[in-house]
Please model this.
Amino acid sequence: MTAVQSATSREATAFSAALDVVGEVEPTVASAIRQELADQRSSLKLIASENYASPAVLLAMGNWMSDKYAEGISGRRMYAGCQNVDIIEQAAASRAKAVFGADHAYVQPHSGIDANLVAFWAVLAQRIETPVLADFGTSNIDDLNEAQWAELRSKLGNQRMIGMSLDAGGHLTHGFRRNISGKMFDQRTYGTDPTTQRIDYDEVRRLAREFRPLLIVAGYSAYPRLVDFAAFRSIADEVGATLMVDMAHFAGLVAGKVLQGDYDPVQHAQIVTTTTHKSLRGPRGGMVLCDNELAEHVDRGCPMVLGGPLPHVMAAKAVALAEASTPAFASYAQQIVANAKALSEGLLQKGTSLVTGGTDNHLVLMDVASSYGLTGRQAESALLDAGVVTNRNSVPRDPNGAWYTSGIRMGTPALSTLGMGQAEMTEIAGIIHEVLSATKAGTTTSGGTSKVNYDLDAKVRERAQERVKELLDKHPLYPSIQLG
Model:
């Protein structure tokens, strides 16, 4: 039984009372929060990047720790009166180091992109800024004259990175032009093999030898297979690059010891970033883990990149990391993968096309264009009508582009939190197949085939909604919390 399933009457009273207090000031907000719980209880959450935090994690965020400014790090703050923030930050960092086996942990980042920016600038500080300052005979950038400062800025802004392409499953924050990371680095991408749709490590090595990047970024948001981080480290070492891994999606699988050996990024990368709210099942936020050699640079994340840390969120991170250190969480992480494989097998048995032909981790990427003649946007909307929440996603070499897409991404962390198992995943695969088989592409106002409009058979939609309700009735969200 998970912490979400075992919510007590005390917690129910706490949330109900809290919303009463909020409602006395701003009833619109209280009403929306109540409605959100109702909405989440009425649909199957298959978004791979979402989960359900425990009541303890949620309650840790809603308190007066929010009122503190605490720039700096534990024991070295720019504001007085931060002794309790120090306790919380140290607890979260200690938990993170223990859970992941890391030399150092920095728990201040507010989000995944913040964590990545801290990591990027820590690497630049270690590899570029520190040596340049030494050449100038100082360790303080304020000692540089204008010409020296211009030279340093030029070198900081002229470095190279390689990362996974977006259509192969990479992330926007890994050096793409629409994100600030793409404006910081000269970036090249590695994709996947056209036949297997898996990472070709020989091709990554060839690209690294040719491009000679300062930074190699591994990790993904939509790649359904394991990544050999030992191989990535070998490539990085060969070309003198720093290896950074963004494990935002699969941090819970690392914490739960599902990913070990060559597949554990913390044991191979010099620096690892993550969110804390996906498979790790914590609050919305970020974190950086690193080797000791990078620790001093990472700890300068505030004010280098971040504003004041969020003590209430760090408190919730500490609680979530405490939960992640338990045997129950390890069992949960195992169930996530077992469920993803069951969902995958259920879809394959229906003849559905999956990217890479299956999964080894927490997510499944379905090619709805080749399977059902739909765009990802149409499939996403039709499934939502039926009570199944997913998100559209590109597939490798996607002919429909990044907006309409040809794929649907699904993940099992949230439903695993509710206690669902392989049998439920097989049932869900059947629901998905039935809905998409009964969905047809609509037409545009000019009579052409639409990439947005769709027609879903009403009887199929109603039958799917009934099946979804049956599953959720057996596996309720926060069952003891009744808000009235």
